[in-house]
Design brief:
The chain is of the alpha/beta class. The chain has seven helices and four strands; from the N terminus they run βαβαααβαβαα.
């Protein structure tokens, strides 16, 4: 792929979102795709850090703007203890972070409901899954844990991810109409 040069007008820089079921190989597929396309993988953990940092910076500015020393002290204390974001604040910040990442393009964004936030005009939404038993086997082998523990982890991850999507976006994570592929 030809890179933009300084004298060229900006070109569309597409992105890919990948939603994946635990044990389906989505991370491995994303890494291979990133190498082939010369994209960067932005995993959900990175997105979470960016959301928390952006929210914390905004909270600090708001506290300083209010010139309320006790609010600042409370904010610092909550930051040290691991601040919990309100659902609405979290979603607004997540939307801003994901749209900023997508604007730069040439990224594969993993998880966090990115397919429900980013419009498909300039990117591709992908869901990677596999039968439950195959995912359990993959997790058991990858983590060297008994099959029963792998079953528990896969089922728990499925439940947590489905609850996140339903709770924030009011959709089913497994709805094929929510993905391009």
């Amino acid at each position: 792929a030809k890179k933009d040069s300084p004298d060229e007008s900006p070109r569309l820089r597409p992105w890919i979102t990948i939603s994946r079921a635990l044990g389906a190989g989505g991370g491995r597929i994303a890494q291979e795709l990133a190498v082939r396309l010369e994209y960067q993988v932005i995993d959900r953990e990175i997105v979470e850090v960016l959301v928390r940092e952006q929210h914390s910076q905004r909270a600090l500015i708001e506290s300083l703007d209010e010139r309320d020393r006790s609010a600042l002290e409370i904010w610092v204390e909550s930051l040290l203890r691991g601040r919990i974001l309100y659902k609405g604040d979290y979603l607004r910040t997540l939307i801003r972070v994901l749209n900023s990442i997508a604007l730069h393009g040439r990224v594969i964004i993993m998880g966090r409901g990115a397919n429900f936030i980013l419009q498909p005009d300039h990117g591709l939404h992908v869901r990677i899954t596999a039968p439950f038993s195959k995912r359990v086997t993959a997790v058991s082998e990858r983590l060297s844990i008994p099959r029963e523990e792998a079953e528990r982890r896969v089922a728990q991850a499925d439940q947590e991810r489905a609850a996140f999507i339903h709770g924030y976006f009011h959709h089913s994570i497994d709805d094929p109409l929510s993905y391009d592929l």
